[in-house]
Amino acid sequence: MELKNGENSYGVISRANHWISAFLFIGLVILGIYMHELDKGPEKTELYALHKSLGIGLFMLMILRLVWLKVSPNPEQLSKTKFEHILGHAVKGILYLAMLILPISGWVMSNSGGHPVAFFDLFTLPTIVGENHDIHEIAEEVHEIGKWMLLIILLHVAGALKHHIVYKDSTLLRMLGRK
Ligand code: HEM
After folding, report:
1. pLDDT 10s digits, 111-122
2. How far is the CA of 122 from the centre of ligand 1 (A)?
3. What is the pLDDT at residue 179?
4. CA–centroid distance, residue 160 to ligand 1 (Å)
5. CB of 48 closer than 6 angstroms to any ligand 1 atom
6. Confidence class of residue 66 from pLDDT cuts 50, 70 and 90?
């Protein structure tokens, strides 16, 4: 079992991070859209707390991912055309940015709205901004970008499937740890 990434392979650390993050990311977007529509009540309160905890989890994985990228860089993308090379990198770049901007804007939004951000019952993140209506509104606008991430994920998955089905290369297989 190889921990590090190779020239044409993903090691177990990157693969585990990718699939756990993917599961969390998709879950967070769906949960975020669903809980927003709920009327005020205990279910909404509980789901907001869960959304924050999972969001902190994704943020911690993103920090680990950035550290791991320095230790063990990802294999180069297998691109057929220049357009697909740029598109693939752009889509992954947007996902990277989203995994930083969405948790941070959520943190700012909660704190500026006068609410703490806790990771389950384990710890509470420090308050990064005090209560402030204007900052809250801006952070809310930024956080709403999250809704559009379903489209970006769709493009990302379509790219992975095109490589697997049309080009029959190792793009998807190496992320699954197969040869
Ligand atoms: C079922 C859903 C998914 C599939 C099938 C999938 C598939 C893949 C594949 C095959 C690669 C490797 C691409 C390459 O080597 O060039 C990859 C990389 C990547 N994926 Fe996904 N992915 C999925 C969901 C997601 C989600 C939801 C995210 C958002 C967090 C995400 C973020 C990334 C990132 C950032 C990379 C770049 C490599 C890395 O840093 O780990 N993926 N994905």
Report:
1. 999 999 999 999
2. 29
3. 73
4. 8
5. no
6. very high
One-letter identity of residue 131: E
With the most atoms of ligand 1 within 8 angstroms of its CB, the residue from 8, 97, 175, 176 to mutate is: 175
Question: Which tokens hold the place of 10?
Answer: 């993903």
| Sequence letter at residue 32 | G
Q: Are strands 123-124 and 118-119 parallel, antiparallel or unpaired?
A: antiparallel
Is the distance from CB of 146 to CB of 32 less than 8 angstroms? yes
114-131 core/surface letters (b: 16 or more CB in 10 A; e: else): eeebebeeeeebeeeeee
Q: Whole-angstrom Cα distance, residue 111 to residue 125?
A: 10
CA–CA distance, 78 with 167 (Å, rounded to integer): 10
Domains of the chain and any CATH numbers: 12-175 (1.20.950.20)
Please give the backbone phi and psi of residue 73, each rounded to the nearest 5 degrees, phi first: -60, 155
Q: How far apart are CA 136 and CA 83, in angstroms?
A: 38
> For residue 47, is it left (φ>0), alpha (ψ between -120 and 50) or beta?
alpha
